[in-house]
Specification:
With about 220 residues, the protein is of the alpha/beta class. The protein contains 9 helices and 8 strands. The chain has an 8-stranded parallel β-sheet. The longest helix is centred in the N-terminal third of the chain and has 22 residues. Bound molecules: pyridoxal-5'-phosphate. The site of pyridoxal-5'-phosphate has 14 residues, from strand 8 and helix 9.
Length: about 220
């Protein structure tokens, strides 16, 4: 696709986001994070040139390489993947705009220690395993509110901004919807939460209709 064709293609994606958000309310704003994990720096630059600013990666090493390669562009980098303890320092070196996948109290405490030592803060979302899938990370929905409050209390260098979830891994829309509804209920109960990150290429319209205000789009944004 040349730039003009790509622009037309992205306009159509944005129209889908628009019509889903307008079903919720004209005041319901949804932010798109373009997940670039299957894409290279040239492809990211192309998307930047037609207006996209926020990008997400799920591996610290990839985030580091792409952020370095594109450091001259005013991009906003999100880290959306599982964070191993031995990669915390590498992630903090990059100063990501938002860490979407804070998935345990234990990780929160490790992060707090490293943040304190650097005298820095990090914006983060609590990942919730709303579909209760073994293959997924995140706190269980039953303990999410308590974990959220505990992190806020015990980890002053982590700015918890809200919650994140990956929709249930199934073709059954009702089950996916249920997992989004579960996350949204928790989002509403968490004090001070402003970001509800849920929805990917295959389910973002449903996620928005369930209250999501941040969607993470990979394949659909890069036409893969
Ligand atoms: C890969 C990934 C996405 C984007 O997936 P697509 O289906 O390509 O949109 C979103 N969120 C997380 C956590 C991911 O790992």
């Amino acid at each position: 696709m040349n730039t003009t064709e790509y622009k037309i293609y992205i306009d159509a994606v944005i129209r889908r986001v628009e019509s889903a958000r307008l079903k919720v309310s004209p005041h319901h704003i949804v932010k798109v994070v373009a997940v670039s994990k299957y894409s290279n720096s040239d492809e990211i630059k192309k998307l930047y040139e037609i207006g996209q600013r926020a990008f997400g990666e799920n591996k610290v090493q990839d985030l580091k390489e792409k952020a370095n390669a594109l450091e001259n562009l005013p991009l906003e980098w999100h880290f959306i993947g599982n964070l191993q303890k031995n990669k915390i320092n590498n992630l903090l070196d990059i100063h990501p705009a938002l860490f979407h996948a804070l998935d345990s109290l234990e990780l929160a405490h490790e992060l707090q220690k490293k943040l304190e030592a650097r005298d820095m803060t990090l914006d983060a979302l609590l990942q919730i395993n709303s579909a209760k899938e073994q293959s997924k990370h995140g706190v269980m929905p039953e303990s999410a509110c308590e974990a959220y409050a505990q992190i806020k209390k015990e980890c002053p260098n982590i700015n918890l901004k809200g919650v994140m979830s990956i929709g249930a891994h199934t073709e059954d829309r009702e089950i996916i919807k249920k997992s989004f509804d579960t996350t949204f209920e928790i989002f509403k109960q968490c004090e001070g939460a402003t970001i509800c990150s849920m929805g990917m290429s295959g389910d973002f319209e449903l996620a928005i209709e369930c209250g999501s205000n941040m969607i993470r789009l990979g394949s659909v944004m890069f036409n893969k």
